[in-house]
């Protein structure tokens, strides 16, 4: 009886594991087609320059609209592509797309900053690093307008190799941001060692800033630490005005989150952010 029950449970478990595995394999097999058919695309989440009170730029975030499964979250498919060593293809696709879109935006609104997420493991792929640097160089943007966001846990693994790759990227004039800062084992000593330009405080600290005293302290002291080290600070996950006001008080440089805007398509970013801002400046200029 008991054996039967256990057997049944195992059979059920196997079936579930099988489904998960075949789904992963399907996704991997479908990657090239998805890229060709435009089922993989990018949205842009605006970043706000807090002291200047104006648009700073945007972060490219990848989207996969699957013909049968609908929208799949990057939190699901990015780790699968990373494990299968297919993340370079996807990243170069997103980078190209973002560079092309930003070259268009930059013609209207010069100086916008374009951030792209780079999986940490790609720091150990010299072909990818060379290719990515070359593509940025070919784009009409200034290289300093491009930011590579790398998660802190990744940068911490194999420090030596990571540092070499980060230095190469920075030597080309591209900027480096430490994404999801605070979720790993951030220490002052590694921040000093890593050749970076910016830290991006994780949304888990920012979202609860106005209700959680410990998180408020963490954010405030991080701003101070980063500025002391000559780094720029970005806060992600700003969901309301109180949070934005608090960050302004702390001296945070750049803010991102639903309060500013959710991620939007390239077309809406252009019409709602670039064109709208051009309209505003035009009006300001016209009225003296
Ligand atoms: P991330 O780079 O830390 O991006 C921030 C995530 O938080 C995005 O989710 C964004 O939509 C969401 N978010 C932004 N503002 C708010 C807010 O105010 N409140 C809340 N609750 N959420 C907010 P998304 O687009 O689902 O991306 C999730 C993660 O997937 C990213 O985290 C990044 O690690 C990864 N990812 C996305 N696109 C790419 C890519 O092109 N390449 C790589 N390697 N990873 C990517
Ligand atoms: Mg990011
Ligand atoms: Mg260039
Ligand atoms: Mg993040």
TrEMBL record:
Superkingdom to which the source organism belongs: Bacteria
Residue ranges occupied by any EAL domain in the UniProt entry: 24-277
Name of the molecule in the record: EAL domain, c-di-GMP-specific phosphodiesterase class I (Or its enzymatically inactive variant)
Protein's organism: Parasphingorhabdus marina DSM 22363
Lineage start: Bacteria, Pseudomonadati, Pseudomonadota, Alphaproteobacteria, Sphingomonadales
From-to range in the entire protein, with total length: 489 to 776 of 776
């Amino acid at each position: 009886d008991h054996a039967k029950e256990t057997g049944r449970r195992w059979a059920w478990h196997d079936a579930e594991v099988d489904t998960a595995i075949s789904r992963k394999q399907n996704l991997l097999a479908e990657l090239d087609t998805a890229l060709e058919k435009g089922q993989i695309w990018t949205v842009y989440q605006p970043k706000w320059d807090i002291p200047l009170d104006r648009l700073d730029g945007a972060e490219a975030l990848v989207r996969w609209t699957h013909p049968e499964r609908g929208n799949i979250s990057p939190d699901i498919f990015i780790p699968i592509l990373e494990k299968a060593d297919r993340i370079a293809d996807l990243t170069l696709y997103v980078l190209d797309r973002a560079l092309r879109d930003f070259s268009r935006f930059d013609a209207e609104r010069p100086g916008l900053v374009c951030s792209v997420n780079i999986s940490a493991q790609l720091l150990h792929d010299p072909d990818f690093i060379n290719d990515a640097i070359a593509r940025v160089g070919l784009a009409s943007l200034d290289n300093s307008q491009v930011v590579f966001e790398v998660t802190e846990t990744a940068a911490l693994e194999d420090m030596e190799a990571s540092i070499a790759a980060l230095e190469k990227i920075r030597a080309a004039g591209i900027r480096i941001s430490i994404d999801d800062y605070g979720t790993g084992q951030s220490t002052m000593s590694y921040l000093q060692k890593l050749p970076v330009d910016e830290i991006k405080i994780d949304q888990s600290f920012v979202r609860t800033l106005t209700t959680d005293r410990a998180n408020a302290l963490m954010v405030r002291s991080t701003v101070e630490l980063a500025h002391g080290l000559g780094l720029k600070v970005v806060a992600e996950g700003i969901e309301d005005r109180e949070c934005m006001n608090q960050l302004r008080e702390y001296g945070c440089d750049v803010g991102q989150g639903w309060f500013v805007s959710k991620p939007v398509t390239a077309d809406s970013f252009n019409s709602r952010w670039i064109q709208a801002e051009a309209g505003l400046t035009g009006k300001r200029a016209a009225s003296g």
